[in-house]
């Protein structure tokens, strides 16, 4: 297994699929710091997959009723909240500047 590889991006737009009969995305961005990682995962049967994870470094302005806080048993702004992206979700990032 490999260490997660951080993809340095100054900003991003995340798009999540919504449960409709046809393809609909909910896209959003945040002004606070986020980190994007490529993570190598290995399944029980030995299969491997590359996954994308995002860590929200500052959750202090999130609603205290956000599901992440309930699931993780934490309060807003205490620790980063990280999650994986499903294969049908998208992340848009700016192209690197060429100097």
From TrEMBL:
Every BURP domain range: 1-95
Matching SMART domains: BURP
Protein name: BURP domain-containing protein
Organism encoding this protein: Jatropha curcas (Barbados nut)
């Amino acid at each position: 297994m490999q260490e997660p590889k951080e993809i340095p991006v100054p900003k991003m737009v995340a798009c999540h699929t919504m449960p409709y009969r046809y393809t609909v995305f909910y896209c959003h961005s945040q002004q606070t710091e986020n980190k994007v990682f490529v993570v190598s995962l290995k399944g029980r049967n030995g299969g491997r997959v590359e996954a994308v994870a995002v860590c929200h470094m500052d959750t202090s302005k999130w609603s205290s009723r956000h599901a992440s806080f309930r699931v993780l048993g934490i309060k807003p702004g205490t620790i980063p909240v990280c999650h994986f992206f499903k294969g049908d979700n998208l992340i848009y990032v700016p192209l690197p500047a060429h100097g």
